[in-house]
């Protein structure tokens, strides 16, 4: 399973990259605003800065919601850097744009996916990635992980190449369950990645090894 970090914070991206397990970055307009990145030029520069920090795919989201606007903005984003994946919302004009981008060889991430029907449409349109938001489904007392399972089954039934990018991952158990189900990618906060390191028996065992080593020297 690929690990993406879901942030526009350069320090956190650098920390995840330094761990050696990072495969890419996802961003969205809210994450860019959280870092105080505003204005078209600053936003475009920030995407390039992120691409220069990591080796993998970097999702950059369009703001336009009409077909022509999505195409114009998506082509501009795709030209920024060869690591850019154009993030397009799951709306009618978004699906049409994904098909257009797919035919032109521009990679896409279909975002704001909350049902298996939406995921099926994204795959039919040729999306590179589909992003089901599991945490936000959990937030409204719906099982986000069962959506990942349904999409896995549907994609496997027909051999769709669209990668399931589990998004809105909030914690380590989401990561582990996504891996168990067979999501292709997960994107989450740095804490969901570094949290995988932790086990009290590891800490206790290491302290014991070091203490015993000290006794013997
Ligand atoms: O980037 C999309 C998604 O991962 C957002 O997550 O935590 O805002 O629901 P969250």
CATH domain class:
Alpha Beta
Structural class call reads: alpha/beta
What is the total number of structural domains? 1
The CATH homologous superfamily is named Aldolase class I
CATH topology: TIM Barrel
Protein described:
The protein is an alpha/beta fold and 217 residues long. It has a single domain, classed as Aldolase class I (TIM Barrel, Alpha-Beta Barrel). It is built from eleven helices and eight strands. Strands 1-2-3-4-5-6-7-8 form an eight-stranded parallel barrel, surrounded by seven helices. Helix 8 runs parallel beside helix 9. The radius of gyration is 19 Å and the shape is globular. The mean pLDDT is 97. Bound molecules: SN-glycerol-3-phosphate.
List the helices and strands and how they pair.
Blueprint: E1 2-6, H1 10-19, E2 24-26, H2 29-34, H3 40-53, E3 57-61, H4 67-80, E4 84-89, H5 92-104, E5 108-113, H6 116-125, E6 129-132, H7 134-139, H8 144-158, E7 163-166, H9 172-181, E8 185-188, H10 190-194, H11 200-215
Parallel strand pairs: 1-2, 1-8, 2-3, 3-4, 4-5, 5-6, 6-7, 7-8
The structure holds SN-glycerol-3-phosphate (G3P).
Structure, briefly:
The chain has helices at residues 10-19, 29-34, 40-53, 67-80, 92-104, 116-125, 134-139, 144-158, 172-181, 190-194, 200-215; strands at residues 2-6, 24-26, 57-61, 84-89, 108-113, 129-132, 163-166, 185-188.
List the main descriptive attributes of the protein structure presented here.
217 residues; alpha/beta; TIM Barrel; eight-stranded parallel barrel; 11 helices; 55% helix; 17% strand; globular; binds SN-glycerol-3-phosphate
């Amino acid at each position: 399973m690929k690990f993406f970090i879901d942030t526009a914070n350069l320090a956190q991206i650098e920390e995840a990259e330094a761990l050696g397990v990072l495969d890419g970055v996802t961003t969205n307009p809210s994450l860019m605003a959280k870092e105080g990145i505003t204005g078209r030029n600053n936003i475009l520069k920030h995407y390039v800065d992120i691409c220069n920090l990591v080796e993998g795919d970097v999702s950059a989201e369009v703001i336009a919601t009409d077909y022509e606007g999505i195409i114009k903005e998506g082509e501009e984003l795709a030209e920024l850097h060869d690591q850019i994946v154009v993030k397009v919302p799951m709306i009618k004009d978004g699906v049409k744009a994904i098909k257009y981008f797919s035919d032109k060889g521009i990679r896409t991430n279909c975002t704001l996916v909350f049902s298996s029907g939406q995921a099926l449409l994204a795959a039919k349109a040729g999306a590179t990635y589909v992003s089901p938001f599991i945490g936000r489904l959990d937030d409204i007392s719906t099982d986000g992980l069962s959506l990942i399972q349904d999409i896995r089954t549907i994609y496997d039934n027909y051999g769709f190449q669209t990668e399931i990018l589990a998004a809105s991952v909030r914690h380590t158990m989401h990561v582990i369950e996504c891996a168990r189900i067979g999501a292709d990618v997960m994107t989450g906060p740095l804490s969901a990645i570094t949290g995988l390191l932790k086990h009290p028996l590891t800490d206790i065992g290491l302290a014991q090894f070091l203490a015993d080593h000290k006794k013997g020297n």
